[in-house]
Amino acid sequence: MDRSLPKEKEILEKIKNEFKREGVIQRAKRVWVSIDKDQLLTCSKWLKKEGFIHLSAISVSDWLEEKKFKLDYLLWSFQDKLLFVMTVKIDRKKPIIDSVISIWGNNAQAHEREAWEFFGIDFKGNQNLTPLFTENWQGPPPFRKDFDWHKYVRENHYNKDNERERGYYGD
Amino acid sequence: MKEKEGIMEINQEIFRLPKTDQYDMYFGPCHPGSGNFGVKLKLEGEKIISALSDPGYLHRGFEKLMEYRLPLQNAMLSDRICVLESLAWELIHAEAMEELMDLEIPERAKYIRVIMAELSRIQSHMIWWGVFSAGTGFDTGFKIAFGYRDYILDLFAEITGGRVYPAGYICPGGVRRDFPEGIEERIDKVLDKTEELAKYMEAENPTFKARTKGIGILKLDEAISLGATGPILRASGLKADLRKDDPYEVYQKFNFEIPVREEGDIYARFLIGLAEMKESIKIIRQALQSLPKGEFILPKFKKPKINMKIKEGETYVHNEIARGEGGMHVISDGGKYPYRIKVRGPSFSHMIPVLEYLLRGAELADIPAIYWSLNVCPADLDR
What we know:
By secondary structure, chain A is an alpha/beta fold. Chain A has five helices and seven strands. By secondary structure, chain B is an alpha+beta fold.
């Protein structure tokens, strides 16, 4: 029997029994599991109990063809020294998901604010979804794949009288 | 004010006292010390009722920009993520790319990377100590720290070609240049100088203690739920260091301690920074002694590779940088450019949830000490 990576295998086995989801061991100390949107809160609670108390980040990526947003919750266990990535895919047209503030506290609040600002994802239960980085931003969420920043700057901020800008944006 | 028959009539409204003692104040307002950042405060007398972080002054959209650049260009872009420890961010980017492309880099490159990362940590901690001294009213400390930091910057200039920005020195595949002849002795001399500085930094000054002990306390439970990492978390009592917990490069080969303190106050964070510098010196000395000979970069990366495809997949790489956990989540769809790069800066948690929490209920005069004790870098928060 293969005895390598015992902790990784143990957590995968547990998550299979608990949530009926198969995961992947990418390498030592890296476990990736994809779950359903409605499992998010129960799974998060369970993971925190298992020792994943540190939320490193919430990483969002935009998949145009699939019409989905992929949210990766990067979780670290100080006890097992293991990184667990919980992946949830949500509909691109109606990007609403539960907030995990009740589980990972104000740290999650700040990460969700960032995801809301850059990708326009609505977190149900997060009361303070306000911009962190942009000021008076009127355009669409800027990190979405269908947002062409080059075109946006050309249409809104291009000064044709400026020679340097003409060299960059001109025809 | 309006003029009436030659006599200035003054609007008496402005002399009336407000109905409460509450007032708003801006800390910063947009550049408190080093780095663009602000905090909106609500005070009652000298006591802070609420604090609201106001980042974004340094937002350059690196994550989006990297989707339009080759790994070769991103190596250069990644060092701009944080001015104060550019080499550490280059290392994270290079490691992430190597993991996606299944590259095993030469042993000598790994040693050089560790030496450079640790030198970077030392100079970053010197800035920390410098701006922290300036924040607590000890201006001489600022000048001493920046003077000694220059010895390290001179080394960077000699090794990488750039003092602050090494412009892609640590790149996917290894490092851009080999160590110059006789650099080992010069690094050793600079480490002696650094130890000399450490003597100045022994913090037994009673005024300094009065300003830092028992102030800005961050308990362990709070530290974890607010997302603190690195020296801030260790000053609150958790022995966690990614160099030991999730070893990268060749850190597992070196003996070093992880300094931990229980108090969680400003003074504890200060002492952690000091102790970490000494541990970094230890690591560099060991690495210099056992520095292997051989290649410093994979042969196929010696000439810049432009038409290189990144294998499809995704990975998360996190390193223990001077400020805490610095990480990159990279997704590739098999093309020349990365599909998505998410940068996790340690200051994101330290400057939004942690800072807001610590400032609530603190005194007005303690703001600079609390702010600088967190070893912040607005650049890696804003990206």
